[in-house]
Design a protein that fits this description.
Layout: E1 3-14, E2 20-28, E3 31-41, E4 46-47, E5 52-53, H1 60-84, H2 89-97, H3 105-113, H4 121-137, H5 148-161, H6 166-185, H7 211-223, H8 228-243, H9 247-252, E6 258-263, E7 266-274, E8 281-285, H10 288-292, H11 309-322, H12 333-344, H13 349-356, H14 361-367, H15 372-379, H16 385-390
Antiparallel strand pairs: 1-2, 2-3, 4-5, 6-7, 7-8
Helix pairs in contact: 1-2, 5-6, 7-8, 8-11, 8-12, 12-13
Length: 391
């Protein structure tokens, strides 16, 4: 049985700078699998015939040296499988990945993230900065090099060199731990070095806005004293707070996703689309304030054209200062705000969970915050005559 190997650029995904990741494709008995390298180059700097990087690509010598070693390793594995008469994609995958001393951590992660069933595009995008931090810390980090000492040193690097928040650093380590568990399942390592570390993620407080703060932002929006860019960002953020949409859903929301239905004899509008992160369908009834922010005109096409998530977060900082709200607010805080205010308004917990598009209540508990005001209102019920009689 023949083993076919082809080296190429992964043109299906182009990075912001126009580069494509180098990979190779293995085909055995009509079954195919791709393996990604930890390098990306511009298509014009890729020699397709030689399957090497052209000399005008920065760092071409180092990349080509790596590729030549990988090609030799792939050929050796293919030859060995032929001799042992164990030619199958499973055996090739096992032989190629079952070498921690030769397996690049970032390259392995990219291989794992290529599973589009397990990882949604939004999740992969959020993990890209984490892989970049690993690459900055130690280029070509091998899985075999990751031990308890390196993990502690990497954490210090994240906190002191990159000046990341503790919660961000621990999220990076948690992701590394998860990918090493994947490596363990594939037999690349026998034990995860994180298993020997008493590592518990910090429960960082989630930022959200309360009702009075939303009203302050609404007045600022209605006053139209902000610049055009800030006004647009505030409009999109408030719409998120009214609907629980994440940034990814806000960006892809189209007029066709807004559907009209009759509920209890009244005309109601719903947002119906797939949650980007989970792929689960969500249905969000539109309140009047959200309807007012919808553009009029054509019945098809994007509802909004938001700036990038990073740009919106930068402008939100300035908007919060203008509104005299002393909180670090990002677009994702809109979902925390929606769930928290929803609880205060008396919306049942399971309804909030359904609107958020969560697959279980545990996730909603992370988003929903019981404010002091809500707890005080609920505890006031203990002061009723009937409650006193029970005591």
């Amino acid at each position: 049985m023949k083993i076919s190997v082809k080296w190429m650029l992964w043109a299906q995904y182009v990075k912001m700078d126009g580069r494509c990741t180098i990979c190779f494709r293995v085909t055995i008995n009509r079954k195919t699998k791709y393996y990604w390298m930890p390098f990306a180059v511009l298509p014009r700097n890729w020699d397709e015939r030689k399957a090497l990087v052209k000399s005008n690509e920065p760092g071409s010598n180092r990349v080509n040296l790596y590729l030549e070693k990988e090609k030799l390793r792939v050929d050796e594995i293919a030859w060995d499988l032929q001799m042992k008469k164990k030619v199958s994609l499973f055996e090739f995958d096992k032989a190629y990945l079952n070498q921690a001393a030769k397996t690049d951590f970032v390259g392995f992660c990219k291989q794992v993230y290529s599973d589009t069933i397990r990882f949604k595009p939004g999740t992969v995008r959020t993990h890209q900065p984490i892989l970049k931090r690993v690459s900055k810390y130690k280029p070509d980090l091998l899985i075999s090099e990751i031990d308890q000492e390196l993990i502690r040193d990497f954490k210090n690097y994240l906190l002191n060199t990159l000046s990341l928040e503790l919660s961000t650093a621990e999220k990076t380590l948690k992701t590394m731990q998860a990918r090493l568990n994947d490596a363990k399942e594939k037999g690349i390592i026998t034990e995860n070095p994180f298993d020997k570390i008493k590592y518990t993620a910090t429960n960082a407080s989630k930022q959200y806005l309360i009702g009075e703060e939303i009203e302050r932002l609404e007045k600022l929006y209605e006053a139209k004293t902000l610049g055009n860019t800030e006004q647009k960002v505030l409009q999109h953020f408030l719409f998120q707070c009214y609907t629980s949409l994440g940034y990814a859903e806000l960006k892809k929301l189209r007029k066709e996703d807004i559907q009209i239905e009759m509920v209890n004899g009244q005309r109601s509008e719903f947002i119906r689309l797939m949650r980007e992160k989970t792929g689960k369908p969500i249905s969000v009834p539109l309140i009047d304030r959200a309807k007012e922010m919808l553009k009029t005109g054509f019945d098809i096409g994007p509802v909004f054209r938001p700036f990038t998530n990073q740009t919106m977060n930068e402008y939100l900082k300035a908007i919060m200062v203008e509104a005299k709200i002393h909180k670090s607010i990002t677009t994702h805080c809109a979902r925390y705000t929606f769930s928290t205010i929803g609880l205060e308004k008396g919306i049942p917990f399971d309804v909030i969970s359904n609107i958020l598009g969560h697959e279980d209540f545990k996730t909603t508990h992370i988003y929903a915050t019981y404010t002091d005001r809500l707890k005080a209102v609920e505890m006031e019920k203990m002061n009723t005559k009937k409650a006193r009689q029970l005591s």
